[in-house]
Amino acid sequence: MITCLSNVATQVGVGRIMGGSKFHYPVGKPELPPEEELRWRVGLLEKGLAALETPVKEPKVF
Amino acid sequence: MKVLHYLNQFFAGIGGEEKAGQEVLFIPGAVGAGSVVQNALKDRGVEYATVVCGDNYFHEEEEKALRAIRTALEQFQPDLFLAGPAFNAGRYGLACAKVCSWVRDNWRIPAITGMHEDNPGTKEIGRHVFVIQTGASAASMQESLKRFSLLIERLLTGDENAIETFRAEHCLPIPRRFTVTAGAPDYVRAADLLLAKLKGQTYESEIPRVEAKQHAIPNLTNGLKDATVALVTEGGLVPKGNPDRLESSRGSRYFKYSIDGRQDLRRGEFEAMHTGYDTSTVNQDPDRIVPLDAMRLLETSQRFKKLHDHYFVTTGTGAMPSKMEEIGAGIAEELTGSGINAVILTAT
After folding, report:
1. How far is residue B131 CA from its own chain's centroid?
2. Where are the domains of chain A?
3. CB contact under 8 A, B347 and A48
4. Taking 70 as the threshold, does the pLDDT of residue B49 lie above it?
5. Is A32 helix (H, G, I), strand (E, B) or coil?
6. Which residue among B215, B288, B342 sits closest to A52, beta carbon to beta carbon?
7. What's the pTM value of the predicted model, to 2 decimals?
8. DSSP B245
9. Mean pLDDT of the region B205-227
10. Contacts of A1 in chain B (CB under 8 A)
11. pLDDT band, residue B179 (cuts 50/70/90)
12. How near does any CA of chain B get to the CA of A24, in Å?
C-alpha cells in the first residue's frame, strides 16, 4: 500500500507499506517537469515491487 | 412486568422452511425458547407473550409484519421486548435486528436480541438495542438464554452499572455512531479528552473504537517475474463523468475499469470522486493516484509479467469500517479469481 498515513496502515495490519508523496497525490510530484515526475514515479513503484517480493510477517514500512 | 418475545416459525415450533411464509401470530404465553426465559424469571411475576413471524414473510411483507407487531404491542403493552436468539441465521437475524430497532425507536422500551457476530443482522441494529453475543448455532441456546435472563434481571433492578458491565461482557459492540449526552459541552469534552491524552491519563471516548480484524500477511512464493499485478485505489478515480455514480463519500460500492491498451491515464478522461482530499492535482494527471504510466514501463521492462487489465476503485472516506471490509473482501475475491498474484494499492 502506498499512502502518506503509514501509521494508520500499520494499525490496521497492512503488510507492506510505503510512504507516498503527498496525502492528496500519493504517487505524484507535480513540482517536477512531466518526464522527471514519471522517472520519480517509476522509481517509487520499483521500490514497491521490491517490497512485494520481500517476505514479511507483520506490518512493515518500506 | 410484561415481556413480549419475537420468534421465527422454526424456534416457535410451528415448522421449518415450509412455514417460512407464516404471517405474524400473537400467542399469549411463552413458547419455544421463550419458555426457558419465562421459567428463569418465574419468581419475578413476569407476564409473557409471543409474536411469531415466518422468516420469509417478514422480509417479503416487512411493513405488514411491523403493523401486525404494532397491534400486538398495543394490545399487550409490554415493558420489555425480546427477539431471537438468531445465532448465525441470516434472515432471522435481520428480522430480529429490524424488529428490535423498530420497537426501541417507536415504543421506547428496552429491546434485546442475540446473535453471532457474523450474522448480517448486526448491520441493521439501531440505537440502544442490546445484542447479546451467541454462538453460531443453536448449540449455544441454553447459554444464550441464560444471558437473556440475566440481562432482564439487571434491567428489572435498574442497576446502571450492572447493565453496563453486562453490555461490556456479553453484548456485541455495534460499530455505529449514536447520540450520547456527555457531562460537558462538546468543546469542553474534546479539550478534556485531548488534555488527558497529552498527560498520559486514561480516558474513554464516547465513540466506540473499531478494532481492525488482523489477517495473515501473504507472501509471494515466487518472485514477480511470472506475476500478474493489479492496481487498486481508494482514491475514487473513475472515468470522466462518473458513469456508475461512485459516491464521493461514504462509499458503499467498488468498481473496476479497463486499462487494457492504455499507456497512461490522461487528464480529462478520468477524474477523482472523493470528498476526503483535494482532487485537483490528481485530476491534472490521474497517474498520480493510479500509476499506470510507471507500471506500463515496468511491465515493458519485464520487472513483472503482466499488469491486470482492470484497476479497482472505491472511495475510502466517511465510510463505515464494516462496509469497507465488505468492499475489500469483494475486491480481493475478484482479484484472486482472476489469477492476480500481487496488488499495488494507493491510498490518500
Report:
1. 13
2. 2-61
3. no
4. yes
5. coil
6. B342
7. 0.60
8. -
9. 84
10. 345-347
11. low
12. 5
pLDDT higher than 70, residue B176: no
Q: Collect all residues from B whose CB is shorter than 8 A from any CB in A.
A: 212-215, 217-220, 223-224, 229, 235, 277-279, 281-282, 284-285, 287-289, 291, 293-295, 297-298, 303-304, 342, 344-348
Smallest CA-to-CA distance from B111 within B130, B133, B85 is with B130
Contact B46, B30 (CB under 8 A): no
Domains of chain B: 2-170 (3.40.50), 181-211 (no CATH), 228-346 (no CATH)
Q: Output the nine-digit C-alpha cell for B238.
A: 473513475
Residue-wise pLDDT tens digits, A13-51: 999 999 999 999 999 999 999 999 999 999 999 999 999
C-alpha cell at B84: 431471537
Place of cell 409490554: B78
Residue type, B242: N
ipTM score of the complex?
0.97
Amino acid at B79: D
- Range list of β-strands (E), A1-62: 2-3, 16-19, 60-61
DSSP of B119-176: -GGGGG--TT-EEEE--SSGGGHHHHHHHHHHHHHHHHHT-HHHHHHHHHHHB-----
Would you place residue B237 in the very low, low, confident or very high pLDDT band (cuts 50, 70, 90)? very high
Contacts of B347 in chain A (CB under 8 A): 1-3, 5, 9, 26
Q: What confidence tier does B31 reach under pLDDT thresholds 50, 70, 90?
A: very high
Residue that has been written with the C-alpha cell 413458547 in this structure: B31
CB B281 within 8 A of CB B288: yes
Rounded to the nearest angstrom, the minimum Cα separation between B291 and chain A is: 7
> Is the distance from CB of B322 to CB of B310 less than 8 angstroms?
no
With 0-12 / 13-18 / 19 or more C-beta atoms within 10 angstroms meaning exposed / middle / buried, residue B267 is middle
CB contact A28 to B (< 8 Å):
yes
Beta-carbon contacts of B98 under 8 Å, excluding residues fewer than 6 positions away, are B58, B62, B121, B124
